[in-house]
Amino acid sequence: MRRHGSAALWVLAVAAVYYGAAELGLLQQLVRGQVTPLWPPTGVAVAGLLILGLRIWPGIALGAFLINVSLGPTLPAVLGITAGNTLAPVCAFLLLRRVGFHNELDRLRDALALIFLGALGTMLISSTVGSGVLVLAGALQPDDFWPTWSVWWTGDAMGVLVVTPFLLVIRAAHWPRAPLSRWAEAAALLLGTLSGTYLATGTNNASLLFLVFPFLIWSALRFQLAGAAPCALVVSTLAILAAARQSGPFAHHDLFANMVTLQAFNGVAALTALLLSAVIIERNRTHDEIRRVFAQFSEMVAQMEPRPASYQWPPPDDEEGPGRDR
Question: How many CB atoms lie within 10 A of CB 69?
Fold first, then answer.
């Protein structure tokens, strides 16, 4: 009973977090009041499954149902969207576990698996099911299927690429004992990321969007995933806010053109942060392993004492030795 009660609490907690993340995502809806360029609940769902296991999938379904019941045109449509929103992260979890995914994202293969299996691949399920259900229910015109599908897919994929790594970092976070200079560098990185992204998304020149990448590279090189994941989240959030306002590089363009620009930018930013941090973590681990092996080898060499110079074999004739006649 205690075990089942604990599982039920985790399910309810996941449903509550999913619902809260959905409310935040809906603040920037672009299509039919429920399709957004960044859907945080998908990232919450994948992270919850990776941390707590498959047992919490009812929480994902409950949260998806509660948020869609007030948005969907009909109850069958709500159930269909809920099924798609639940099946996509579950499939992402199963595929990631099948390839031996590490929650620490400490290998390049983990970053690639999260990108191509957890985000770009399995999120086709939720976008296809959701957009198709809305068309069948009459809430969307058939001509609007592909624009809605593109926003839905990229929103779910970006939720996995941006939110899931951030939650995995938060789960393993601890208060580091770092010198004051390290904290000053972290503060400068955060301030620079905010300022650079605000400047890049506040002007009509789309080429200025590249200003944020030095900060993403800086965060990955110096702080690995603990710095890269929050910076990628900040960059993506500010870019989405600018796209929703149709300001800066997203002004005077239609929805599809803005989505292409926005998701290309967010995707490259997330890829830069994840892949580079994973490569740096692998490099550091390899360097530490080489140092450990070298230290062991040095210790073995130090323990090999040389023989005394006076030691001779066989002994001289005037000394007794094993097997010698007197």
Answer: 13
pLDDT at residue 308 above 50?
A: yes
The pLDDT tens digits of the residues spanning 56-69 come to 999 999 999 999 99
Unique residue bearing structure tokens 């400490």: 106
Which residues are paired to 35 by β-bridges? 31
Q: Report the Cα–Cα distance between both ends of the chain, in Å, rounded.
A: 86
Q: How many CB atoms are located within 10 Å of the residue 309 CB?
A: 6
To the nearest whole percent, how much of the chain has pLDDT over 90? 53
**pLDDT for 50:** 96
Query: Cα separation of 96 and 289, whole Å?
Result: 26
List pLDDT tens digits, range 118-130.
999 999 999 999 9
Alpha helices for the chain (secondary structure H) = 2-25, 40-52, 57-68, 75-98, 108-113, 123-136, 145-158, 164-171, 180-201, 213-245, 255-303
Query: 31 forms bridges with which residues in the sheet?
Result: 35
- Give 306-312 contacts, CB < 8 A, sequence gap 24+: none
Residue 288 has pLDDT above 80, yes or no: yes
Residue 310, helix vs strand vs coil: coil
Banded pLDDT at 131 (limits 50, 70, 90): very high
Q: Rounded CA gap, 66 and 72, in Å?
A: 10
Angle subtended by helix axes 213-245 and 255-303, to nearest 10: 160
d(CA 182, CA 227): 12
Q: Considering the entire predicted model, what is its pTM?
A: 0.84
Q: Quick check: 38 and 28 in contact, CB under 8 A? A: yes
Cα–Cα dist 195/188, whole Å = 10
Residue positions counted in the chain: 326
